[in-house]
Design goal:
Elements (H helix, E strand, L loop, with lengths): L9 H26 L16 E11 L5 E3 L5 E3 L2 E2 L19 E11 L6 E2 L13 H6 L13 H4 L1 E9 L5 E11 H10 L1 E2 L23 E2 L2 E2 L5 E2 L1
Antiparallel strand pairs: 1-2, 1-3, 1-5, 3-4, 6-9, 7-8, 7-12, 10-11
Length: 232
């Protein structure tokens, strides 16, 4: 009878354990590959939501005994024209302006079908001298007729734009100021665009500012169905 013995050295044990580790790692990679998969979905489309903006306008001006003017009740703009359809763009013309004359306007919004972020924009398209009276020409020689860009009225007119809400009695409650200054200064700011906040916060940052809520229809029983915040 032979008394055979099996000898294990430290090196043989390390090699054996290393082989087990490699085999285990290989089994792990095989399992990972088994659960990896790729699927594709073809002919998909993403469509942005649609909306229809109605702007309800209530404007009036006071020129003392010379003239009084206001837009007809129920004036609204849809598709850049008054009343929508084949109407004309809203145009307000004021003549014989003088110190003490004033005007105010309220613009409220019906955003149909979806909420929306809104920006207010504008542009000063002309500021002509249009001739001078004798007293003015004695003091100012820079004018002309038409004197394009040489007029002073855009610098003389003062404008304040604010958020406002309906007070329920045909008037409005003026809230936070959006922008103010001369007509020239306000139009310059509006040329770059001023973001509006749906909650009427004049200091709201551009990022994460509240949107204006949407409505299902622009009128309910012939009454404008508007967002809470208007611009005055």
């Amino acid at each position: 009878m032979n008394d055979d013995t099996i000898g294990l050295s430290r090196r043989k044990m390390l090699v054996g354990l290393g082989a087990v580790g490699v085999a285990s790692a290989g089994a792990g990679l095989g399992t990972t590959a088994y659960f990896n998969d790729t699927e594709s979905f073809e002919d998909n489309t993403l469509t942005a939501g649609e909306l229809d903006l109605f702007v309800h306008v209530d404007y009036s001006e006071d020129q003392g005994s010379y003239a009084q003017y206001s837009t007809p009740s129920g004036t609204f703009i849809d598709g850049n024209v008054v009343g929508g359809g084949d109407g004309e763009p809203l145009s307000i013309q004021v003549s014989d302006l003088k110190p003490g004359d004033s005007g105010e306007g309220e613009f409220c919004f019906s955003i149909v079908d979806n909420p929306a972020y809104m920006w207010m924009c504008g542009e000063l398209t002309a500021n002509d001298e249009n001739g001078q009276t004798e007293p003015e020409s004695d003091d100012d020689e820079t004018g002309g007729d038409p004197g394009e860009g040489a007029g002073e009225i855009a610098d003389a007119m003062q404008v304040t734009v604010s958020y406002c809400t309906d007070d329920g009695d045909g008037g409005n409650v003026v809230g936070d100021e959006i922008i103010s200054g001369s007509l020239a200064e306000v139009m310059l700011a509006l040329q770059a665009g001023v973001p509006l906040s749906g909650d009427g916060d004049g200091g709201a940052p551009l990022a994460n500012r509240p949107a204006f809520e949407g409505v299902t229809e622009p009128f309910v029983d012939d009454v404008p169905n508007i967002a809470e915040q208007c611009v005055c």
